[in-house]
Amino acid sequence: MVPVIVVAVVGPTATGKSDLALDLAEALSRPGAPAEIVNADAYQLYRGMDVGTAKVPANERRGIVHHQLDVFDPLEDSSVARYQAAARADLDSIAARGARAVVVGGSGLYVRALLDQMDFPGTDPAVRAGLEERAEREGSRALHAELDRLDPQAAASIGPHNTRRIVRALEVIAITGRPFTANLPRQEYVRPAVQIGLDCDRAALDARVAGRVERMWDDGLVAEVRGLAGPDQGGTGAGLGTTAARAVGYAEVLPLLRGEATEADVRAEITAGTRRLARKQMGWFGRDPRVQWLDAAAGDLREQALAVVAAADAGTLPEAGGRPVRRSLGSSSGHRLGS
Predict the structure, then answer these.
(1) What is the pLDDT of residues 166-201, one digit of tens each?
(2) 11 a known binding residue?
């Protein structure tokens, strides 16, 4: 059986990825094999973090099965490795049903971990302790020289004074028996996939972000954070763990709950933080030449996206260039269907 190509909708926050994913899942469903959506947003993995992550409410999911939502308690610290194992299992199950998987999210590392060749070597406390003791005794330069002998490419990219990274590289080599660089992520799909990126003019995106923050506030963001945060964080809930407490929107509201910030300041900080996140996300996805970019504001966005999927299915997409496509918000460079 020919593998069904995985469709991934990626790009910065507030560009309408969730809506497009729902549209594509509906359009790509077949009798007996409805398409299913797999989340790739790091914070939508958390139960109860709904308003602040713009999670699609259950009654607005159009009956489409969603995976990797509400997986962790907010006190838990998630990891990319855990997500990779669980989400890849979801893709396997969807493929076994002969259905289409639509991945959606703006967490670049999670998308890469799901779709690309990316290994997560474990740790060995004894090996690490031994290397750290040697670093103290012999100095980081001695360990860097050893790394240069075992993996020159890794040594060239890691400075001789970066003890933490040197130790980690030597630990991975000891555990795996392979060069550290052999475990680094590669832009190489582990299964057939196509990425559709949503681009947006900077001014338009800034306006979208401001509107999203307004809606989040009106929909009860502060009450949501209060109900999740622990008493020591100013809330009434069980608490937000280290990872969850860093999420944009949640991190800014916590000082408000403790009486350390004003509502106006917090709203402004969330808006600014979301804009910074959008630029970071565009930088991440913009370095991947395989992404097929579409204008998020296009009136026929659904049709354009389906045309990208059809071209991917037919094997007629333009070849990705060897160099990364660095995009700024609203730029006109990059891969587009027909360009």
Answers:
(1) 999 999 999 999 999 888 778 999 999 999 999 999
(2) yes
54 annotated binding-site participant:
no
CATH for 204-282 (1.10.287.890, 1.25.40.20, 3.40.50.300, 3.40.120.10) = 1.10.287.890
Amino acid at 296: A
pTM: 0.86
Give per-residue pLDDT as tens, 308-333: 999 999 999 987 765 444 344 444 33
- The mean of the pLDDT values for the chain is 93
State yes or no: 241 annotated in a binding site.
no
CATH match for 6-118+190-201+288-314 among 3.40.50.300, 1.10.3720.10, 3.30.420.40, 3.30.300.160: 3.40.50.300
**Ligand-binding site membership of 17 (annotated):** yes
Residue 203, pLDDT score: 95
Whether residue 122 is annotated as binding a ligand: the answer is no
Q: Is 99 annotated as a binding residue?
A: no
Domain parsing of the chain, residue ranges: 6-118+190-201+288-314, 125-183, 204-282
